[in-house]
Amino acid sequence: MLFASGAASCVLLVSPTSGGAHCGFRGADTACGACLKERCQSAIDAICLDDPAGVLTVLEQCAAAGDDACARLPSSPVATCTTTSCAGFCSPKSGTSTTRCEESFLAPGLACSCQTEGAATELDCATRTFPRARCCAPAGWPGAALRCACDAVACVSTTAGCICTLTDNLVSDTSAECKRTPETHCCAIEERCECRQRACSGAEKEYDACNAAALHCPPGTTEVASCSSRR
Questions:
Q1: Cα-atom radius of gyration of the chain, to the nearest Å?
Q2: pLDDT of residue 209
Q3: Interstrand relation of 100-103 and 112-115 (parallel, antiparallel or unpaired)
Q4: I need a labelling partner for 124 at 20 to 30 A (CA). Which of 4, 69, 74, 116 fits?
Q5: Are 228 and 114 in contact (CB under 8 A)?
């Protein structure tokens, strides 16, 4: 069953299986559109019949092309969801991809990795699209049999304070920072940072907080802005 919406080509679709109403939009069959449909559908549904800011018109351009229209979405929950959950798919791209990049199976939207073997993909695996991640490449990247990873900051509480690491196994509400207190020191070395009562020692460096700024790539890798490669 279809109901016309306020946008030119968006329609409200009533699912025969769930009975729920969902806003359909042009471009839903692209990689960007599929991500928006999976992760941002509730925000899209909320404005399907009342969209005075014209969000859905720009959203359709974004979904269809995955280009700079995504950055022009009017301020809204849809724009926020697109940026935080689908930026890797919905971002401007130029040239032809030479890497097979995939989101982490355990942390979609938060971490990703790339290889040069296999069919190339359009996912933009970079710190600009996965903002809580650091991208680390081995020497010789991009090269055969190598893997470049953009792993995300994940912080967990401990009895002494907290520990933050770079990982591809986390959920969106995992904390990305823990701060020093008057009783603790935040000590970092490579991809690990710990806030604890014991003072920093050896090669550890002290920070005001454990977060992305305190974490660095593991040995044998170098920080890069993007693991994706295009020509």
A1: 21
A2: 95
A3: antiparallel
A4: 74
A5: yes
Confirm if 186 and 205 have CB atoms less than 8 A apart: no
**Mind listing the pLDDT tens digit for each residue in 24-63?**
999 999 999 999 999 999 999 999 989 999 999 999 999 9
Q: Report how far residue 94's alpha carbon sits from residue 124's, in angstroms, rounded to the nearest whole number.
A: 11
Determine whether 163 is exposed, middle or buried from the number of CB atoms within 10 Å of its CB (0-12, 13-18, 19+).
middle
Residue 138, number of CB atoms within 10 A of its CB: 17
Query: 166 has which bridge partners?
Result: 153
- Taking a C-beta distance cutoff of 8 angstroms, is the pair 55, 78 a contact? yes
Rounded distance between C-alpha atoms, residue 86 and residue 81, angstroms: 7
- Per-residue tens of pLDDT for the chain, all 231 residues: 333 444 445 555 444 334 457 899 999 999 999 999 999 999 999 999 899 999 999 999 999 887 788 989 999 999 999 999 999 999 888 888 999 999 999 999 999 999 999 999 999 999 999 999 999 999 999 988 999 999 999 999 999 899 999 999 999 899 999 999 999 999 999 999 999 999 999 999 999 999 999 999 999 999 999 999 988
Structure tokens at 43: 């925000």
What are 90's two structure tokens? 């919905």
Cα distance between residue 54 and residue 73, in whole Å: 9
- The CA–CA distances, whole Å, from 172 to 39, 154, 192, 209, 225 equal 12, 9, 19, 20, 22
